[in-house]
Design brief:
The structure is a single chain. The two termini are 36 Å apart. This protein is globular. By secondary structure, the protein is of the alpha/beta class. The longest helix has 34 residues. It has 17 helices and 16 strands. Helix 7 links the parallel strand 8 and strand 9. Helix 8 packs across helix 9 and helix 9 crosses helix 12.
Length: 529
């Protein structure tokens, strides 16, 4: 996962060297017409005159849009006034200014055509009445032809700078055609709400990318529609729908559509193709309608997972009750009942007073080799400790339940740190940062944690806490200057720092961080480090 981010970091630094492209292409490129040559020389003058009517809107009102790809243009526009914030009926508008993603808007008679990987927009012919009349006189049109007004191509995935992954994403054709030809195409399913079209391909399968490149951009793009939207998905996966169904149901009141698997023609009044993305695991309020934030997104997660958590609790209670009935234990005497009840109550009160620490455990690379000793130390400090080892099959509601009820979380840098989204604001998050991972650790989890309202602390390990300490000379730059070594590229970084490093915590040093976390949670200090 990290290599994509490191590469992105390097690309961003060189981004300003790119030449800015024109905001609007020449009208001849922005919208084109397929025409046949006039059969009669007497119509040449009439054709030239009709061209004036066709070109006039492009020269003066710019009804069709095709923007360049330079980020500096965005700074000149108000944050909430995007390039395609207002488009007329029968128009396709594509915003290609962002470094991370393209997004296109279609308004009018929108129809899917999965077999050709196309979405058609049948636009009004009113603005070209004179041209239509001239064409009918000259006999240019034929019933079997369809006249394209505009043709855009887009891959609706939020990592457009990363060629290797974008090459795996299906490309869509967005085509505007004449309305009168649209009457030849029927609608199998007619929707009265907009569509949002996106891909769940690419790096889907990695929890970080599923949230950062998919779920969060989907929230950013669709939340203003108040669930009155249909999601149309490319590279559709049933397991993805199962995994994120609770969240999807909070963003849309309608079942999602498998674009490639559903050959029916779906008709919509509007369509958004592609997703907007702000920053790593976050929502920028200044770019949102209604000033929505990452905390609002977390509230949505709460609403999404709460019903499932309640059912889990009820199922557990029912299981325990059934177990008690099966054992058929004799009823205790009054004295035994009083003593037993008092003992249980004391234990419960004692546990409730202890802050809950969740250790997000790893195995293999970047694992904490003395995790058991660290856990024991945390218990001695006063935490009740829960060890969590999620995998790609672990139900998210179950993970949410554990983290949402905790006061602190400890974990080593990696994709699993995405679960900070499940922590309550004001919780403590300690991220253990192995050698060579400081930049991605802080950028992709440290900074987002602060925006979530978490009390974040990055624990940067010393060379002696890394397994690499026993493999390299003490003055080797791999140990002493990891920042310079990661510049060698992704393959070196992955092999050395990500796949071939474990952590053995200096418990005396790490103890200070646990004590600090305990004091922040409990509100009092009585420890000596």
């Amino acid at each position: 996962m990290v290599h994509h981010h490191l590469r992105y970091h390097q690309l961003r630094k060189g981004e300003d060297d790119e030449e800015a492209q024109s905001l609007v292409d020449e009208c001849g490129n922005a919208a084109y017409y397929k025409r046949t040559r006039p059969k009669l020389l007497s119509l040449i003058f009439l054709s030239l005159l009709s061209c004036c009517f066709v070109l006039a809107p492009c020269l003066f009102s710019f009804p069709l849009y095709s923007f360049g790809e330079h980020d500096s243009l965005v700074a000149e526009i108000d944050a909430k006034t995007t390039l395609c914030s207002s488009i007329s009926n029968g128009t396709i508008c594509c915003d290609r200014t962002a470094f991370r993603t393209d997004i296109c808007f279609m308004k009018g008679d929108v129809r899917t055509h999965s077999s050709s990987s196309s979405i058609f927009l049948y636009s009004s012919r009113n603005t070209n009445t004179f041209t239509d009349h001239a064409s009918s006189i000259s006999g240019e049109r034929k019933g079997s032809e369809e006249e394209q007004l505009q043709h855009e191509k887009i891959k609706p995935y939020t990592r457009k700078w990363e060629t290797s992954v974008m090459d795996t994403i299906d490309e869509l054709n967005l085509i505007s055609k004449k309305e009168d030809y649209g009457t030849h195409h029927h609608c199998d399913v007619r929707h009265d709400v907009p569509a949002v079209v996106f891909s769940t391909g690419g790096y889907t399968g990695n929890i970080y990318h599923e949230f950062n490149d998919g779920i969060l951009p989907l929230y950013i793009t669709s939340q203003h529609l108040n669930r009155k939207v249909v999601f149309v998905i490319l590279e559709y996966h049933e397991w993805w729908i199962t995994k994120y169904g609770d969240v999807i149901s909070r963003l849309s009141d309608y079942p999602p559509i498998d674009f490639s698997g559903d050959n029916r023609t779906h008709c919509f009044p509007e369509s958004i193709v592609g997703l907007r993305i702000h920053n790593e695991l976050t929502v920028e309020s200044s770019l949102m309608e209604g000033n929505g934030s990452i905390r609002d997104f977390r509230n949505l997660l709460e609403q999404a997972y709460l019903p499932r958590i309640r059912s889990l609790i009820q199922a557990k209670e029912q299981k325990e009750l059934s177990k008690m009935n099966e054992q058929q234990r004799p009823l205790p005497s009054s004295l035994e009942l009083v003593l037993e009840t008092g003992k249980v109550e004391q234990q419960l009160v004692h546990q409730l007073k202890k802050p809950k620490l969740v250790v997000l455990s790893r195995t293999g690379s970047r694992a904490i080799t003395n995790e058991d000793l660290m856990v024991q130390m945390a218990k001695e400090i006063g935490f009740q400790v829960k060890i969590l080892r999620p995998n790609k099959f672990t139900e998210l509601a179950k993970i949410y339940r554990v983290l949402n009820s905790s006061d602190a979380m400890v974990g080593v840098h990696g994709a699993a740190m995405t679960h900070i989204l499940f922590l309550r604001p004001s919780s403590v998050f300690i991220q253990v940062i192995p050698l060579g991972t400081e930049w991605p650790a802080e950028t992709y989890y440290g900074e987002p944690a602060k925006k979530l309202g978490l009390k974040y602390k990055g624990y940067k390990i010393l060379p002696r806490e890394s397994s690499l300490y026993n493999e390299y000379a003490k003055d080797d730059p791999v140990l002493r200057n990891p920042e310079s070594m990661v510049k060698k590229g992704w393959e070196f970084t992955k092999k050395t720092y990500l796949d071939h490093q474990t952590v053995t915590l200096d418990l005396r040093r790490f103890r200070k961080h646990l004590i600090s976390a305990y004091e922040k949670i409990s509100g009092h200090s009585h420890f000596r480090s």
